[in-house]
Amino acid sequence: MRFWSLLPLLFATVPATVSACEGDCMVGVTNAWLGNYTSPVNFVWLKVAQQISDIMPGHPDTQTVLGYLQPLLTAYKKQAYQGMEMAIFPNYFHGKCLDSDGNEPDGCPNPDCPIVCGTPGSLVHFYPKLRFIAYNQTYHLLQSIVDSETDTYQQVEQAIMNAAASDHGDRRRSYSRIYPRVLSDAVNVGHNNKASHSGSGSGSSAAGRDSVPASRPTDSSRSASLGSPKMLVPVFLKRAQDIKPALKSVLEQAHGLLANACGADGVEATNGLPHCSWEVIMKEFILSYP
């Protein structure tokens, strides 16, 4: 069982008297679901931040990375309420509970209404559907806000690339101080090799291309003496170039992290969502509305 399964509802305030789930009831139920998903969604952002830290040079701490992700967190908060309310009311639960003859069946609106409508009794009777709607809305909201084509994503990507570039610059300056001769020699070797290849390119025989100019032994011994440090610059540059695709890969997994956190099985009809159910406390809360 996940720790958030035991948390009390954040919005379980005493409801006003309403007829069916309208007005205060709709707001209360929507906010209750958003409150329930606060911890699972925060868990997702935390895991995403940790994975992004792993791909960044210097591996900044999680709070620093969450700062880079702030546009995404803000986008989620701005869109969460409206999306959740629309997904529940009126996209699925709406109207009063009336049978085919226009009569209200027994048990409606409280506590158990076997007709899909907008009363508390219907919400409780079809709770498995309600539970999946709330999960599905959260899942797809996370999926949509990390779309790499959005302005929000571009803001996050730029912030992370700027931070990575700054870290690369700090590291390169540090290595320039520690290995000034090494880095200088590495550059010289590159220039000498280029000049050598240019000179040999004028010949047409394979033997000419494969032969080693008289000056090369000095360059080879110099290159051998450099050892692994001369590879620091290209390694850093390669890592900087790899950050964009790696970042996209991490963010594309955000909604999948929610599925894992909630225990989703991928099948709506049987999706018990054991870690994101809150069935007992939610039913009590919903039925507190008359």
Task: Summarize the structure in short.
With about 290 residues, this protein is mainly α. It contains 13 helices and no strands.
Give a verbal description of the structure:
The structure is a single chain. With 290 residues, the chain is mainly α. It folds into 2 domains: 1-146 and 252-290, no CATH class; 155-247, no CATH class. The chain is built from 13 helices and no strands. Helix 2 crosses helix 3 and helix 4 packs antiparallel against helix 6 (127-145). Residues 217-226 have a biased composition (Polar residues). Residues 1-20 form the signal peptide. Residues 195-208 have a biased composition (Low complexity).
Set out the fold topology:
Blueprint: H1 24-36, H2 38-55, H3 62-68, H4 70-88, H5 120-125, H6 127-145, H7 151-178, H8 180-200, H9 206-210, H10 216-226, H11 232-251, H12 254-262, H13 279-286
Helix pairs in contact: 1-4, 2-3, 2-11, 2-12, 4-6, 4-7, 6-12, 7-8, 7-11, 8-10
Biased composition (Polar residues): 217-226
Biased composition (Low complexity): 195-208
Region (Disordered): 190-226
Count of all domains: 2
Q: Order of helices and strands, N to C?
A: HHHHHHHHHHHHH
Q: Radius of gyration, Cα only, in angstroms?
A: 30 Å
The counted number of beta strands is 0
Q: Whole-Å distance between the termini?
A: 32 Å
Portion in helices: 55-70%
Mean of pLDDT: 78
The largest β sheet comes out as: none
* Overall geometric form: elongated
Structural class: mainly alpha
Strand content: under 5%
Low-confidence stretches: 5-19, 169-187, 200-238
Tally of separate helices = 13
Keywords: Signal
Region (Disordered): 190-226
Signal peptide: 1-20
Biased composition (Polar residues): 217-226
